[in-house]
Every structure is written in C-alpha cells, then in structure tokens.
Amino acid sequence: MLLNMWQWVVLTGKFWERHGAEVESFRHYLPGDFDNPPQNPAKKINSHYKAQEYLTYIFGYLPGLLYNILPLPYWQHFCKLVCGIRIILQRTISTKELEMAHQLLLEYCVEFEVLYVQRKASRLHFVYQSIHNVIHLAPDTSQSGPLSIMSQWTIEHVIGYLGALIQQPSNLYKNLSEQGLRQAQINALLAMTDLCPEITELPHGAIPLGNSYVLKHPQDPKATMMSTAEV
Length: 231
Known about the structure:
The chain is mainly alpha-helical. 53% of the residues lie in helices and 3% in strands. It is built from ten helices and two strands. Strands 1-2 form a two-stranded antiparallel ribbon. Strand 1 and strand 2 (213-215) form a beta hairpin. It is globular and about 60 Å long. It starts with a helix and ends in a 16-residue tail after the last strand.
C-alpha cells in the first residue's frame, strides 16, 4: 500500500526485470577501458556489484534509462546529482564548473527532503548521511584538488596486480614486498630513460585521439555466431 503512495517507485516487477536486461545489454557498447561494465542489477545489485559498476550504472546509464519513466520532478532532481558528481569526478575542474557543481549538489540535498521526506518525521530514515555528504564535495575539491585522483582506485589496482605476481605463498608478505620493490624500480627506469617502444600500428577499429590516447573498439572475449542482422 505504501509503495503505491510513493511516486518515485517505478522499477518494480517486469519493469525492473526489463530495466536490468537493458543495462546488461549495454556492456557490448562500452569502450575497452571500462574494466567492470555493469551487470544486470535485477540479478546482481545486492551481492556482486562493484563500486565501478555502480558509478557507470548510476551516473552513466540512469539519466537516460529513467527519462520518461521516473516522474519529471524526481528525474530533474536526480539529474542535478548526476551533473554535480560528474563535474566533481573530473581530473581538471574550472572555478566556474566547481561553483555550478556546488550549487547543484546543494539543491539536490534540499530538494531530497522536499520530494522524498516531505518534512514528515515518519520518513526521516530516508535521509542517509551520504545525502548530506555531497554538499562538502565541492569545498573539499577547492581545498585539496580533484577528489578522483585521491581515490582508492589506483592503490586497489596495484594491490591486485602485485598479488597476482606472488609465487611463494609460504612467505606471503616478504614476496609481496619484493614484488612492490621490483615494480618501483622498473617504473623509475621507465621514467628516467626512453625505454618504452613506440606503438606504430593501432589495433583494428582503433581511433587515435591525440596526446598518446587511443579509443579502442570493444571486442568479445571469445568467438560467437553472428546474428542475421549482423550478417
């Protein structure tokens, strides 16, 4: 009964299942550098969803997927969050962009209580601390720099990479330290001298973007039968 009173509850039943299938189908169109494309949220969101999947799903897919599905006031409110967070996650941010992000996130925070809580004490549990946390993102960026370059993505990747190199489980931490030291020495050599060979040929379908960046075409990990439409 309560769900019928909440106008924002739109992804239920068959709509939720169809939404999940759409999200899963998008993984074939993501660039290769998206190492964790979102899985079907209808099946995996409560158990196997990674942080990177949430970022792509919420701040990449949902604005388009919820258009004309979520009632307009709620959709516009959600888009303020998406726009503000996208700016905050940039590696370079102008003062004007940062001011706009701060304004959008302030409006999102205030309007969340108006739209969802509606000043009702019975709905106070809707307001998680993370809702109010967004109003600090822009000031923290102004003080410390872009927050994306201080995230844990880099160190998590390094830990995973070094862990895969361990060959002596009987002396785990000593081996991990040696692998870290060796990688640091290699990085230092590559930084001091021009030891990296230049890539003269690009993979099939790749597009040069300049500044040593290349957009690669997505590839299937294994051979599959082509559909009639593809043929």
